[in-house]
Amino acid sequence: MNQNYWKIFANKLFLLFFFTAYLFYNPVTSNAVKLTSQNVDMTLASNELVIINFYADWCRFSGILTPIFDEAAAKVSELYPEPGKVVLGKVDCDSETSIASRFQITKYPTIKVLINGQPAKREYRGKRSVEAFVSFVQKQLEDPIQEVANLFSAADVKSRVVIGYFENKESQEYQIFRKVATNLKDDCLFYAGIGETFRAMHPPNETIIEFRPDRASPKSEHHTFTGNSADYDSLNIWATDNCLPLVREITFENAEEITEEGLPFLLFFYHPDDLESIKLFKEIVGTHLVQEKQRVNFLTADGVKFAHPLQHLGKRHTDLPVVVIDSFKHMYQFPAKSDYRNHEHLKAFIDDLYSGKLHREYHLGPQEISAIEIVHGNNQPAEQTMPPESTFKKLAPSKNRYTLLKEEL
């Protein structure tokens, strides 16, 4: 055989290998893609959105979901046939134990959402129907960037905002900006300015990316990105640090997500007409209590919307602002003699939670009780009291919301 024959054979073999690999990682199928330890990493790396159904054959609820999820996968592949966009996959947790362990799967079926290869903060907990899955995918793949005519039209909003100026949408910087916006669209609003208006405001051929906090944040939180805007990692880290601030606002929409993080809440209940108190609280936490973020989640809460937890404490909107720790077992009120404007008092409040002092004082009163007196039963109070039960633990995701745990069968 001559040399040309081997060249043609090698080229055909390469094309066959490439086509096989393409189908392996971006398969066109009427069902959800079966993910294994051999193809899961490449699938996650090569697709913008991946939704995974973690199932077990012995689970009746997994069996009910499988045909629904497969049908949804077929419809999604029709809507988005282009490679690299979206894949609906499934993992058999009994045969792919390493993948199940990697994603900490404890209930079946569990549906995880991954964006640009990274797990989203929220699992899919919506309705389990073909229409609901397709609608969810469409929502996830909406353009996360709003184009504006000038910077001022994007400035006066309550949400946190990232604004970028770009020469054109085809630039590498814009594509990186869009990828970051896809990751953080639930935490920040992303705007882009393209055109003559912006070109007059900035030097030509220069990308400008700025972060602007919500109106309840101090002006010191305004930042301009100083790194390489064509570097995804550095821009993503910078945007994440700004879009996920040390002090967050808790709402009924994100309470489940924040509760799932597992840290007790230090809650600052405020009146919606009093934004200055929020600014002060954020300044105090950001200046003096950054190191405490490993022990509590610092949160602000609209005291009018969250009136129910305050009622458990005997408080009303006229008592705002009110500071509380919710341990997911009990709610503890900031001592009446303490001042939230004093960071040392807030630090002591957190220390008392972890030392057990807050719980003991609800039983034994505010006086100092020695370990010997507690052991021997001396100095018992006339009446035992209990702190109010946690309200926010009821918003946490159930461990077996959609199905039974394996050990329960």
Automatic annotation (TrEMBL):
GO-annotated biological processes: protein folding
Listed GO CC annotations: endoplasmic reticulum membrane; endoplasmic reticulum-Golgi intermediate compartment
Family matches, as Pfam families: Thioredoxin, Thioredoxin_6
GO molecular function: protein disulfide isomerase activity
Occurrences of domain Thioredoxin (ranges): 26-142
Xref: InterPro entries: ERP44, Thioredoxin-like_sf, Thioredoxin_domain
Protein name: Thioredoxin domain-containing protein
Native organism: Aphis glycines
Source lineage: Eukaryota, Metazoa, Ecdysozoa, Arthropoda, Hexapoda
